[in-house]
Amino acid sequence: MKKSTEKPERKKPEPKKPEAQPEEKKQKKPAAAKPAVAPVNAPIGSGSEQRLYNVLIGPIVSEKSTMIADKHNQVAFKVVQDATRREVKAAVELLFKVQVDSVQILNRRGKEKRFGRTPGRRKHLRKAYVCLKPGQEINFAEGVK
After folding, report:
1. Could you give the CA distance from residue 9 to residue 111 in angstroms, rounded to a whole number?
2. pLDDT tens-digit profile of 6-28?
3. Global pTM?
4. Looking at domain 43-109+122-136, does it have CATH number 3.30.70.330?
5. Would you kindly state where each structural domain of the chain is located, as residue ranges?
6. How far apart are CA 109 and CA 47, in angstroms?
7. Sheet holding 125-132, edge to edge
């Protein structure tokens, strides 16, 4: 007996036909509304006040920040990534009831680190150095007024 070298024919799967959808599902869904964010130069009101409470993440307490606080009357804060100078100034004035002279903001890139075998990256950090007017002071031991 000889074996045939021909392969048996395989049936090709038929492409699936799209099912008829009801009229309700064919309509496009309305685009989700973006959360309302007040303009940066808007006066502090009910809409932008909530944003100002979320701008500051926390103070940076380190040797360097203590040194600049003593020498230059400045305070360092961690802030959200999209915070502007005006927002940081308004937030500090609102929360701590002080007068702000100027604000410097910097972005620190997260370090690339290894976590076991896998390479990774620490989070990026945005800092704000807030220069207070003479005679003004923020004491973090007291808390927010």
Report:
1. 58
2. 666 777 677 776 666 555 555 55
3. 0.63
4. yes
5. 43-109+122-136
6. 31
7. 56-59, 74-79, 125-132, 100-108
